[in-house]
Write a structure and sequence with these properties.
The chain has about 200 residues and is an alpha/beta fold. It folds into two domains: about 5-100, no CATH class; about 105-195, Alpha-Beta Plaits (2-Layer Sandwich), CATH 3.30.70. About 35% of the residues lie in helices and about 20% in strands. It has helices spanning about 5-15, 35-50, 75-85, 105-125, 170-180, and strands spanning about 60-65, 65-75, 95-100, 150-155, 160-165, 185-190, 195. Residues about 1-25 and about 135-140 have low confidence and may be disordered.
Length: about 200
């Protein structure tokens, strides 16, 4: 795997929280491990390429008995409807349970998340920008699309970071980046997972 492929795989992996794996197929037609892995990879690819999925959203999923449970936070109603419709087309998926939460985005939150994006990806943690599938420099003219190592969810000034970093130090740096934007941030919840490089 070359560096570009490795970065892409990491970017895709930040979507996945848990896949409930069955040990073998049974009379109900539950997928075997190989089939489940194929479904997982297909769903990851589908979600990563949703046109309205951005750094300001966070989607996860689980699979049980070939039923996909979509979870997370979306700041657009279109994403909340796009995701289950796209995942339902994946081979082997019997049903999709849509548990994605929609959050309205007031203008104040738009400005907060834009400043946090710049602080993280343009200032404090520039090396992480190259891992974004569709990096938008400055996040000015368009929404930064696709999976990013660090996703930024803002709801009425409350900030939550989700995704992965390579060290505890980087996790702390991400928190400092958020706090650097000033008094607009009411609270910060840093849920970044540390995933050291191999």
């Amino acid at each position: 795997m070359n560096t570009r492929q490795w970065l892409r795989s990491i970017a895709l992996a930040v979507i996945l929280v848990a896949v409930m794996v069955a040990p073998r197929a049974d009379a109900r037609g539950q997928a075997n491990p190989d089939e489940l892995m194929r479904m997982t990879q297909d769903i990851l690819s589908v979600v990563a390429n949703l046109p309205d999925y951005t750094v300001y959203d966070w989607l996860t999923f689980g699979i049980k008995d070939n039923v996909v449970y979509l979870r997370g936070v979306a700041h657009r109603t279109s994403l909340r409807s796009q995701a289950p419709a796209a995942v339902k087309k994946v081979k082997g998926v019997k049903e999709v349970k849509n548990e994605i939460e929609y959050t309205r985005t007031p203008k104040s939150d738009v400005e907060i998340r834009r400043q946090i994006y710049r602080a993280i990806y343009n200032t404090f943690m520039q090396s992480y920008a190259k891992e974004a599938m569709y990096y938008a420099a400055g996040a000015q003219s368009s929404l930064p699309r696709g999976p990013h190592p660090i996703h930024i969810v803002v709801v009425k000034g409350d900030v939550r970071l989700m995704g992965h970093v390579f060290s505890e130090e980087d996790k702390e740096t991400a928190s400092r980046a958020v706090l650097s934007v000033g008094g607009m941030v009411k609270t910060l919840e840093n849920d970044l997972k540390v995933r050291p490089k191999n």
